[in-house]
Structures are given as structure tokens and as C-alpha cells.
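Q: Got a minute? One more chain.
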Amino acid sequence: MDDTDLVVAGGGIGGLATAYALATTGTRVRVLEQAPGFAEVGAGLQLAPNATRLLRGWGLLDEVVAAGVLPRRLVLKDALDGIELTSLDLGAGFERRYGAPYVVIHRSDLLTILQRACEHAGVELVPDSRVDAVVADGDGAAARVGDEHHHARIAVAADGLWSTLRGQVSDDEPICSGYVAYRGARPFAEAAWADDDVATDMVVYFGPGCHLVQYPLRRGEVLNTVAVFASPAYRRGEAEWGGPDELDEAFAPACAAVRHALGSLWRDRRWPMFDREPIESWVHGRLVLTGDAAHPMLQYLAQGACQAMEDAHCLATQVGKNQVAGGVDWSGALLGYQHERAPRTGRVQTTARVWGDLWHCDGLTRSLRNALLLDRRLDDYRHIDWLYQG
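A: Always. Here it is, folded:
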């Protein structure tokens, strides 16, 4: 295939964000996606200010806000008794502090916006193209798709948690948390919600070994629900685990409102939750990892898409900083990107695990957690400034 500057393996949110950010610097970009089309499976996702600031800089924030919802608050409740523990106002003061809003949006809507932006920026989008391997030496990279080879200055692995290309950088494997997620996105008229707050707020119910999240999508027309729980069958080592029967069992001790909200879930699909250990090296020759291929994380900080966008912005910035006579010092750009991003994403990965433990605790630990949250000042930002200020 004809040469290009950048070939991206994977056309999800991280891959398209990388493609768009680099294309705006004048880089020629080709995205290879294994699926027949550029589509995202799932329901809602959260975009914190560290991501929406970047979307504003890319000229895409207005479109994202128009397709999504600006929630009024983040509300934390106890799943067993339904008591509100604390909340975070996401209004004007929050936006002034962090320089951008908090937005919730359907995954497919965000992907459509990124795809359209890539097309306008001249990115070549190639579906039905599974990258089998990348040969990446000091002079360039070649991504192999069947009998074809796509040559480029660098190759970006954006092929997600189960990345095959990561194997050229690290021999680690995904780590199963033993937790599984069920999701659902239904029109509000057909949905079952835990309380009326979900019409305007993001509401999280913490329970022993489980939690439930609800918030509106698509201009408030759709209710997004996520239920996560620890699977006893997984702990017993069974091959089949995390089924609907375990879902109901996990939430049986919850208050009536939470059990009612389970009616909004799809029960014919589920998402086992994995992450990986942080790694310091993301670069092998002219191959570089990004997004979940570099730093897959558990969901508890809602930072998967946000960190992928930070990756995209950082890589584009490093390309700009490493301009030399005759082009780009690609090796310098990749090493600068790795140096900046690996420590931050490693902190997000490990902190997400800690927050999961905090959410799912029981007994005395639950009582202490609830007491601390009930005593929290509503204008206390100490535990999120590092994350949202970037």
C-alpha cells in the first residue's frame, strides 16, 4: 500500500481520537479497523473535564454537548439503605475550576462525531482490515493485513484491552477482576430508574461487592444503567460465571429502588471486567501503544476514553515539538510521549482499583466509608484535582 505517515491499528474511540489529533498537525493518517464499519458496542460513557478541554481544542465540544447531556450533579448513595452520602455539583463553579464541563454521551454518538471529524480532516478510514502484525524498525513500520502491507513512518496500536500488538512491547496478559458489568440504554418512557434524580444527575449506588450507576443520555431521552458485581462462580473457578442469576443474587440485599432499576439492563450480554498492570515502556521501534492497548483500566474513575484522548493530544503535541529539518524526529516524539503519559496513566490504573475496593466494601469498612462521605464538604475537590486538572 502507498506510504503514509501514521497507520493506526484500531478504529475505536482511542484510534479515531489519535487519528484526528495527528491529522490536524498535517500528518497523513490511515486507520485500519477489523470490523466492517466504525461502530462502538455498549451504552454510555463519561467525559470529564480533562477530556472535554481537549475536545474543545479540537473544535468538537459543541457537537459532543449537543449529542449528550450536561449532568447537574454526581450523587453517591448507599445501595443497601438508599441514603445519599455526598454529591459533587457539576455546574458553573465546577466548569470554572477545571476549564470545561462534564459530559455524558452514548459511545456510538461519540464515535460518529470522531469518525466524521476524521473524514473532514482527510484521514483514510479502512474497515474490514484486521492488522495481523506490525514490523517496526528504526526507519518505519509496516502493518500487515492479510497479504497487504501498509507502510508508514510509525504504527499506533489502538487495538484495545486484548491487543495482539502489545505483545511486541510486553508479554503480560489481561487481569480479570472477578467482576462483571451489565448495561442497558433504554428510552426513559420504557426504563426503570432508582429515583427521580437520574433525570438530571449521575447517580451511583455503592453496595457490598456490587454497585449500580444511572444517568441520562441523548439530550435526556435515554436512561443509561450499569450494574457491576463480584461473581461467586468466578471465585470458585467455574468456566461459566457472571450470569443473570448471579446478577439478581448480588443485588438481592439492595434497597427496593436499586432492585427496581435492574429492569433497565440488557440481560442477553455482559462485560467481564479486566485491566492490566501498568508498564513503563510503550514503544518498540516505530510501534507505539495507545488507549486500552497501553493502559486498560477498571471503570471506577470513568477515565478509559478520557485517558485515550489525553494520549492522542500528547502524541500530537510531541510531533509538533520534534520537528526537524526534513520532517519529524519520530523516535524523539514517541519517547517524549511515553515519558509523559506512562506515569500518569499508571496512577489512574492503580487508583481505579483502590476506588473499586472503596465502592464495594462491607461491614465496618462500609460504615467508616459512609461516615467519611457524609462528613465531606460539598466543595472538597482534593481527591479529583489531580485527575481533572490534567
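A: The first strand starts at residue 4 and ends at 9.
Q: Perfect, thanks.
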